[in-house]
């Protein structure tokens, strides 16, 4: 098989070399968030299991959420969840036939970043004691 | 198998597309429901939390959501593997790399589904 040098799809190293349109950045972010959730599901299931085991382990999980490391892990799970959710919602809306133009795609990608950033900010404010 | 025939006919992408959409609706409804519950609960303490997950339909909903997540993640992870773990990057060993990657993803997702079932099963 002849190996071509042409880029076929966006790779992580490509992000550092080329300038990409916001639609491409939104697309690769959707994928990265998806992989983060694929791995993060283990942490979520672990937390669910512990939170249901006993009152002590439930309180342990609650206390862990108040610690800097626990907060970091929580936001590290919530941020990709929110972004993947909003970006996925964009796909469903576009599947219905809305915004299927070049301008629509760019606007939708901008909205995805803005709305998910806003929701993540709200969650972080809500987490503050 | 109908699925096998459809794959041979080259429409497996359509099946993946449908799996991705249906599972996304199940998962997002569960996420919204859980957030709404936490925001509206009088107090999120152990008793209330355990009572929520002791409900049979909540257990069914939870396991269904994890299974939907596994189907969703399988399509997503498989797609990512087919895009990046190619002959271009790995030469002749690309197939082996991709098979190992797919096996790892499949195994972990199977484990997740089983785990969620175990958590709900051992409750009560």
Describe the secondary structure blueprint for this structure.
The complex is a heterodimer of chains A (about 130) and B (about 120).
Chain A: H1 12-17, H2 22-53, H3 55-66, H4 68-95, H5 102-127
Helix pairs in contact in A: 2-3, 2-4, 3-4, 4-5
Chain B: H1 2-8, H2 12-40, H3 46-54, H4 56-84, H5 87-90, H6 94-121
Helix pairs in contact in B: 2-4, 4-6
Classify the beta-strand content of chain B into a percent band: under 5%
Question: The biggest beta sheet of chain A, please?
Answer: none
Q: Give the name of the CATH architecture of chain B.
A: Up-down Bundle
What would CATH call the homologous superfamily of chain B? Fumarate reductase/succinate dehydrogenase, transmembrane subunit
Sequence stretches where pLDDT stays below 50 over 5 or more residues of chain A: none
Short description:
The complex is a heterodimer of chains A (129) and B (124). Chain A has 129 residues and is mainly α.
Structure description:
The complex is a heterodimer of chains A (129) and B (124). By secondary structure, chain A is mostly helical. Chain A has one domain (22-127): Fumarate reductase/succinate dehydrogenase, transmembrane subunit (3 helical TM bundles of succinate and fumarate reductases). Chain A is 81% helix and 0% strand. The N and C termini of chain A lie far apart (60 Å). Helices cover 85% and strands 0% of the residues of chain B. Chain B has six helices and no strands. In chain B, helix 2 (12-40) crosses helix 4 (56-84). At the A-B interface, helix 2, helix 3 and helix 4 of A face helix 2, helix 3, helix 4 and helix 6 of B. Chain B: This is Succinate dehydrogenase hydrophobic membrane anchor subunit. Chain B: It is a multi-pass membrane protein. Chain B: Pfam families: Sdh_cyt.
């Amino acid at each position: 098989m002849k190996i071509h040098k042409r880029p076929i799809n966006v790779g992580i190293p490509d992000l550092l070399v080329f300038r990409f349109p916001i639609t491409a950045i939104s697309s690769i972010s959707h994928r990265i968030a998806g992989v983060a959730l694929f791995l993060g599901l283990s942490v979520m299931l672990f937390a669910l299991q512990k939170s249901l085991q006993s009152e002590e382990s439930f309180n342990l999980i609650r206390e862990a959420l108040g610690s800097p490391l626990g907060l970091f892990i929580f936001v590290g799970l919530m941020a990709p969840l929110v972004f993947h959710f909003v970006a996925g919602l964009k796909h469903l809306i576009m599947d219905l036939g809305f915004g299927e133009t070049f301008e629509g795609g760019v606007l939708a990608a901008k909205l995805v970043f803005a709305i998910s950033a806003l929701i993540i900010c709200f969650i972080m404010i809500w987490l503050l004691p | 198998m109908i699925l096998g025939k459809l794959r041979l006919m080259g429409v497996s992408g359509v099946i993946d597309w449908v799996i991705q959409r249906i599972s996304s609706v199940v998962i997002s409804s569960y996420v919204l429901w859980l957030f709404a519950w936490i925001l509206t609960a009088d107090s999120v303490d152990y008793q209330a939390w355990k009572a929520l997950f002791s409900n049979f339909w909540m257990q069914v909903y939870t396991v269904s959501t994890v299974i939907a997540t596994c189907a969703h993640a399988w399509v997503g992870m498989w797609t990512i593997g087919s895009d990046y773990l190619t002959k271009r990057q790995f030469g002749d060993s690309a197939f082996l790399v991709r098979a190992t990657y797919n096996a790892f993803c499949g195994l972990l997702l199977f484990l997740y589904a089983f785990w969620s079932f175990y958590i709900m099963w051992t409750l009560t």
